[in-house]
Structures are given as structure tokens and as C-alpha cells.
Amino acid sequence: METTAIAITKTTGFEALVERAYREQNTFAGFEGTLESAVRVHFSRMSTQNHVWKRDAFRQLLLMMYAKKCYAVLRNPSYIEVLANISAFGNKTVRDIDDWTKDSLVAEGQLKSLIRHCFAKYEVPAFMENVFSGDRKVYMLWYIQLGRGDSVQKLGAFPVKFTAKMSHEFRQTPDDYTVGQAIRRAQAIGFGAAAERAEAIAWSSLSAGFEHEDFYGTVVRFIVNVEQEVAFDVLQNVLEYIAAMRAENISFSMKGRTWEALVRQSAEWHIAMAKKREAEGRCQWTPAPVNNYVVADEDCTIKIVQLTTSEALYEEGEAMSHCVADYEEACEEGRTAIFSVRKFTQGQEGFDTLATVEVFLENMEIVQAQAKYNEMICETSHAIIGEWAFREKLAIGYEYWTQQDLADIRQANEAAEAARRAQQQANNHARIEQRQAAEPYYRPYNAYADNSGGGDGTEIVKIFLIIFKILIIVAKCSN
Questions:
Q1: Which terminus of the chain has a lower count of CB atoms within 10 Å, N or C?
Q2: Cα–Cα distance between 10 and 155 in angstroms, integer?
Q3: 3-state secondary structure 198-262
Q4: CA 176 → CA 116, 145, 380, distances in Å?
Q5: Is 364 strand, coil or helix?
Q6: DSSP labels for 265-306?
């Protein structure tokens, strides 16, 4: 609960102040920094005709807290607001307000004790007591429902479908958690998250709201199932990226995605966003002395438009997936001018970018004309750029090939490749034939071959003669 103190009047005549504000019609303008105005502003928000028990309960709470000398509560407008929130459910108390016993010397302790006294017949998680210092009435109603014995799964307008395990974990939430954090923590544990992962999910941006829960429930389950370590700062970046992708495309889903890919895509997206923010805060320059150009017919209009701001260059680069944003300095210094060729189709919003054109201003020459992904521009773009160049006396220095030129080039490349493969195959056959024709370096001995012509047969005879001489010498020695 907030404890911000502000200047207030003395509490002398407090009962009279309360009675006066209680009887006053709802004409009070607003908070003026005094105790009386803090009381009156809340009475002014409570009808004197409908649900008058709210005014009665607020009056009763103020007078009771004064009678029990809870002055620290009454001196702080934030604490008075807590009393007003309690009175908004004054018809749902489980005990008489006046039966409350002051059991703490600290203002926050007194208020929490009062909340339990008024609404908690059964035990309610302590973190839920903090909801009465906020502005979410539905959270206060959940406290009251839990206090009368309802289960978490039966809470009204609860944003997440809880299992029994999730409901149990919700009641075990640490005291310093918000309701949103408690819901995400319990949900993550119910999906199987360890305590550390559940805590990271709870303190992430996922706890900020519960719109499109059918989708974000799958995000929670996905993060729970990530096997790698998940650093909190990386998690926050990935969640920001996912939210942006979902906002752009309602069909974006977590199906088939991996953590590694999301981390990489998130990093790329954050870099792109940083460049965009930087471009938005940067300069614009004086246009080059080259006029724009417009060609119109019945169905569409094509415009050649000069880009004269950092943001415009960035957006052009994003749309065309090239690096034209890097030309900012050259444009600012007057060395280069960048133009965008845009097609506006009748009956359609926005435009299609056909080409990005760079004009080198020193010699007034078009040095580049690129389509998306730096591919060759189409014939329509080339023709219109040619008309514009003629009118503005610009030289054309960029490369361009017609579709027939490109087809001829492809055909020539294919023919050259086929010829290269045929030559390589012929060379391989020639090497094989040469290898087969060559005499082998070693020919195995064949006992059945005709050796009369010498060669191997002569060598064998010599070997037998040598062996015979050795045997004779051995025999003589033996004698």
C-alpha cells in the first residue's frame, strides 16, 4: 500500500467534518491537499440516491478509525482511499465494522487487519489484501469471494482457466506479488515450471494483462517447456517481440517455433526498432534540385518521390529489404539524392514500392536503381525512370537487363555448364582408357603360363641351380 504523505489540516472537529461531507450533495470539485478535501472527494463519488450503503459504510469507517485513534490512517489520503474501497463493498461484510479491534501500531497493519475483519471469514492469501489500495474493483471482489469460502476456480470474471494445482499455487503466492503476477506464477507451475522459471514468468510483461489469453496461455506453456536457461532480460525482449508480431498479424502463433529462433528474431527486431527510433529523432535535409515525377492512367498512378528525412530512408529500407538507410549522411551532405518509385492502385490503400533510385549529384547521374532485395527492377520501372531522367537531364549509369536479356543469359549459362560437364566426362573416359592400355607394374606368377620364351621361366631355372649348389656344399661339409 502506498504511504505517500501530503499536507493536511488538523484533525480537530473530525467528526463534524465527516458529518458535513456525508450530508453534502455531490458537487465537490476535487482534492485540494487537505484532510477535509480528501474525505469530501470520496463522498462526492458516492451516490446519495443509489447504493447509499456505500456512503453509510464510509462514514462508519471514518468515525470508527477516529474513535480507535488510528490517526496515521486518517492523515494519509492513500489510506483514506483504502477505506473508501472497503466501503464500496459495505453490503458484503461478514462482521460488523465497529467490532474491529485495533491490533497494530502501524497504519498498514491496521488497514490489513480491518480488511480481514470485514471480509475474511475464511483464510485469504495475504497478497490479496493489497488490492484495496488499487483501483481494480474486480480484484477486491475476488478477495471477498475467497473470504466467504469460494474456490479460486469459481472466482467471477477470472481471466485464466485454472486447474486444481494452479488454484493451490495461487493461494501459496508470496506476499509481495500483485494479482497478475500471482496468476501467471500459478499458471506456470501448473504447466510444469520449476520455481525459478515460474518466478521469471510472473515478473515478466506477461503479468501486465490478460487480453487474448487463448494466445498468451500458449506463450506461457511454450516458455515453461524451454529446456535451455532463460535469462530474464532475454525473456522480456522475446515477449516484446512476440507482442509486436501478434499485433501485426492476428494469426501469429507459437506452433513450430523454437527458443533459439525466437531469441535470434527478437534481437534482429530490437535492432531494427532501435534504428527506427534513432531515425525518427534525426534530421531532414534540403531536397536536391531534381523534381519528382508522376505518371497516371485509369487504374494506377506511379510517382517518383524524393526522400528527405532519416525516417523516410529507414521506412524505404524496411519495405525493400535493403540498406538505403545507410545513405543518410551522403544525403545530408548533398552528395546523393534518394528517390522512391511508388505505385498507387485505384481502390487500394497505401502504395507498392517498385524501386529505390540513387542519383549522384556531382554529375547528375542515376547510379543505382534496385527493386526489393536489391534485385533487378521491372520493365515498367525502367521505362518510367527513363522518362523522368530525360525530363530532368539525368544520365543513366545503372545496369539493366530486360526479361529477354535475362533469359538469354540464363540460356547461355546453362549451355556453358552443359558443355563443361560434357568435356569433363570426355576427359574422364580418356583417362580410364589410357590407364587400361598401360602395362601393369606387377604381373603375378602363373605356374601354368608358357614360360619358354624366357622371362620369368629363366629366373626360376637360375634359382634352382643356386639351391642345388648350396645343397652340394652342405653335403661335403657334413662328410
A1: C
A2: 42
A3: HHHHHCCHHHHCCCCHHHHHHHHHHHHCCCCCCCHHHHHHHHHHHHHHHHHCCCCCCCCCCHHHH
A4: 17, 21, 64
A5: coil
A6: HHHHHHHHHHHHHHHHTS-B-PPPS---EEEE-SSEEEEEEE
- Quote the cell numbers at residue 142: 475476488
Q: Write the CA distances from 106 to 78, 145, 335, integer angstroms.
A: 15, 27, 70
The strand pairing partners of 357, in sequence order, are 339, 369
Query: What CATH number labels 293-400?
Result: 3.40.630
Question: Across the strands, what pairs with 305?
Answer: 340
Q: Are 311 and 269 in contact (CB under 8 A)?
A: no
For residue 310, what is the DSSP state?
H
What is the pLDDT tens value at each position of the chain, 479 positions in all?
Answer: 545 554 444 445 899 999 999 998 777 667 788 888 899 999 999 988 888 999 999 999 999 999 999 999 999 999 999 999 999 999 999 999 999 999 999 999 999 999 999 999 999 999 999 999 999 999 999 999 999 999 999 999 999 999 999 999 999 999 999 999 999 999 999 999 999 999 999 999 999 999 999 999 999 999 999 999 999 999 999 999 999 999 999 999 999 999 999 999 999 999 989 888 877 777 889 999 999 999 998 889 999 999 999 889 989 998 998 989 889 899 999 999 999 999 999 989 899 999 999 999 999 999 999 999 999 999 999 999 999 999 999 999 998 887 777 777 778 888 888 888 888 887 887 777 777 666 554 455 455 445 444 555 566 666 767 776 777 776 665 55
Residues 6+ apart with CB under 8 A from 346: 298, 299, 300, 301
Q: What share of the chain is helix, strand, coil (3-state, %, to 5)?
A: 55, 10, 35
Gap between the Cα atoms of 94 and 412, Å rounded: 91
d(CA 309, CA 13): 65
What torsion do the CA atoms of 240, 246, 252, 256 make, to the nearest 10 degrees? 10
Domain ranges of the chain: 1-150, 293-400, 405-438
Contact assessment for residue 232 and residue 203, using Cβ atoms and an 8 Å cutoff: yes
Task: Give the pairing of strands 395-396 and 365-370.
Answer: parallel
Sheet holding 300-307, edge to edge: 293-296, 300-307, 336-345, 352-360, 365-370, 395-396
Give me the residue label for grid cell 490503400.
349
For the chain, the residue count is 479
- Detail the DSSP E strand segments found in 45-156: none
